[in-house]
Amino acid sequence: MKLLNFYNAEGARAMGLVEDNLVYDLSKASNGDPDFSTVGKWLASGDATGERIKSLRDQVAADPSTAMALSTLKHAPLVERDAQIFCVGLNYADHAAENNVPPPTSPIFFTKLPQVVVTHGAEVPIPAITDMVDYEAEVAVVIGRRADRVSEAEANECIAGYSIMNDVSARDLQRLDKQWFRGKNCNGFGPLGPWLVTADDIVDATDMEVTLRVNGEERQHSNTKNLVFGPAALISILSQTLVLEPGDVISTGTPAGIGSCRKPPVYLRAGDRVEIEVAGIGILENTMVAEKPKTY
Q1: SS3 of 133, please?
Q2: What global pTM score does this model have?
C-alpha cells in the first residue's frame, strides 16, 4: 500500500491511500477513528490496525467515486513532530571514495529534526547565509514496531515501509562548524515523501535503483545493494543503545555524485528542480527557492 498524509477540505491533516493516481480518504472512511488520522498515528496504534487498514482499503476501493485525484492534493508532512529522524553518513562505498575516505566500519549516525521535514512538491529555501547547498538522494526506512536491542532478523519485522528523503546539506556550514548538525538542519532541509510504501509491497529493499536529477539532468544513480549497512543492520545497530519507536525514520545514506564532489563543484540554486526516483517507491520532487526576507 501507498499511504500519505494530506490536508483535507477543512485544512486538517488526514491519511490517504494512493492507488492508480487516486487518493482515498482513510480518515473519513474510518469515521474519524484517531488511529487513522495520520500515517504516524496509524503506526503508533500497533499491530492490531494492520488488518483494519486492509479492511478499510477494501471498503474504499469498492466505491471509486469517493476518490480524489492525486494531482489535486496538498501533501502534509509524513512524520509526526515528535518523530526521531536518523541519517547515515558515507553509507555507500562509492560516496566514501569520492570523499577520499574508506567505508566506515560502523554506521555514522546523525539526526535530522522533524521540524525541517517538508513534503513532496514543497519549496526548499536556500538560506542567505550559505551558497553551498547540496542534494543527497536517500531511501528512508520507516519504523512500524518498537525496536529495542533487536537482531538483524528481528529488525526486518520492525520495518513498516519505505519512503524517499533528500538529505539537503549546506556544505560550507558543515565545514565551518566541523560537524554536521547545523548544515543538515536548516529550514526545509528534509524533503520526505511522497508517501510510505508498506514493506509488503517492496520486492527487495536491498535491490532498488536510486536516481537523482536536477532540472532533468542525472546527477546520482546507484542501487541499494551498494549500501555498506542495509536497513536491517542499521536498525539493529542503532537499537542496541536507543529505542526506536513506530513512526521514526532512518534515512540510509546517499551514493556518489553529490554536487560538492563534482569537478568543479556544482551547488543548488533558486529555481532548481530536484527529483529523486526510487524504483518501487516513486518520485520525490522539490524546487529550490531563495530564502524569504525576515518579517517583523
Answers
A1: strand
A2: 0.96
